[in-house]
Predict the structure.
Amino acid sequence: MEIIIAKTAGFCFGVKRAVDMAFEYASSQGTYTYGPIIHNEVVIKSLEDKGIKPIETIGDEPVKNLIIRSHGVSPKVYIEGKEKGIAIVDATCPYVKKIHRYVQQYFEKGYGIIIAGNKDHPEIQGINGWANESCFIVKDKEALNELQLEHTNKKYLLVAQTTYKKQVVDEIVGVLKEKGIDFEYINTICNATKERQEEVVEIAKQVDVMLVLGSKKSSNSLKLFELSQRHCDKSYFIGDVSELMSELFNDCEKIGITAGASTPASVIQEVISFLEKITH
Ligand code: F3S
């Protein structure tokens, strides 16, 4: 039996960096993460075992160190932390940080800021804070029609949520041009998601069974599973090795494995060890 493991399986650079930073603070008293560090119960539980819990707002707990997750936050959080004497451990993904800088600079120059993204996503809420919460957040080209953008003497900057689909952003660019809006577009889409999605399709097409490892709460893992199902009938979405049974692999010659951006390497390794055991 052959096992094909996706090169892009598991943590992206930004998530790995944030999780590593959180574990570095494991022995420090009074350390909290601002929201769950990632959508993965295994990682959250293991941080909780080491005394690091997520909080939703500053003020609920006696916080000494506050870890900002890879999604980033509004400047308000840094200000509030400083006022309360909290040490901020900034694990914002550098790619997200770059968006904060663009948005702040352009906002200060008087530009209106348009973000292509989901208004409820923490990354977008954080970015919005860098323009004093004045951003126009559009989920698709249709949403643009509801906006009252000024056509005279007003310039705009368009950026995108790092995990947004390029096609949707391209359509937004097209409509802004049609409307005659004076804007600059900075492509802030991160390739990590796209590459992972392309690879799952490529592997699912050539295997008998495809395993997608990730939490049911992780939307990027679910998306991988949906893509896998389109190309491999025997696709399974599993949280960890305890959900596997050797019967799933009867008469199977090739197995593919991928994992969402929030799936730890240990979960992937346990599944590989399980498969190696049943094939020997
Ligand atoms: Fe950063 Fe891209 Fe991951 S923006 S958090 S490396 S998906």
In short: The radius of gyration is 21 Å.
